[in-house]
Design a protein that fits this description.
By secondary structure, the chain is an alpha/beta fold. It has helices at residues 14-25, 74-85, 111-121, 140-155, 228-233; strands at residues 2-6, 29-35, 54-56, 66-70, 92-99, 125-131, 163-168, 180-181, 188-190, 193-197, 203-207, 210-212, 238-242, 259-260, 263-264. The longest helix has 16 residues, at 140-155. The protein starts with a strand and ends with a strand.
Amino acid sequence: MRVLISNDDGVFAEGIRTLAATAVSRGHQVTVVCPDQERSATGHGLTLQTPLRAERADELFAPGVTAWACSGTPADCMKLALCELVKDTPDLVMSGINHGPNLGTDVFCSGTVAAAMEGTLEGIRSLAVSSACFQWRQFQAAADLALDVVEQAHTDLWPENLLLNLNIPPCESNAMGALRWTRLSVRRYEEQFSRREDPRGRAYYWLSGEVINDLESAGEGPRDWPSDVAQIHANAPSLTPIQPDLFWRGALSSLPKLRMNDQLVR
């Protein structure tokens, strides 16, 4: 397959280099277009006020990988790749391997997931893959499993508008539990900001906080599917199907009763 890979950890991240090398070793044609530095938690942000620049970075990757380092966000990288840098439309988009988890509602601020979602929006089968620990730096098991998943999904005629979000526990493959389909959890944090003062006495803030480890809360999906957080907590890989459509799926009768010009909005 023609595989386009990006991430949000930047061109020097070990995760993306391991993923690209593994894809090439399986005979895929691999192009990398990723940020030139870390741009984590940028969500689906786009660069509109400054120009984008892209430089070749083949020497940072395994032989056979064509690579570009881009000055923009992960979503910028994917748009630039698909519009300008990649000659033939890829069969597959992969984003990662992220250095840290992308679980639950955190997918909304994830640059890794945004890059994959950009592929989905363009009608390309896409997968985001994350190693669910910021300190874990052994990515080969994650890369192997990610390629296994996308190759099987491609064989099984992967549906359109489906993004697969894969999170992998920080351990070797022989220590992992079985891969399962999961639902997105609801991620909540405590103490979101840390207030400090600079040498001149002016206040500034660091976004911080601790995640509340909720193994039960989860959104839509089959009730017998575990949440992605619970699956990772069980030391097993989590695979969550996501689509771009954010339309409300609750009961229509529960929507607010709105009036305009004394007429009920229907």
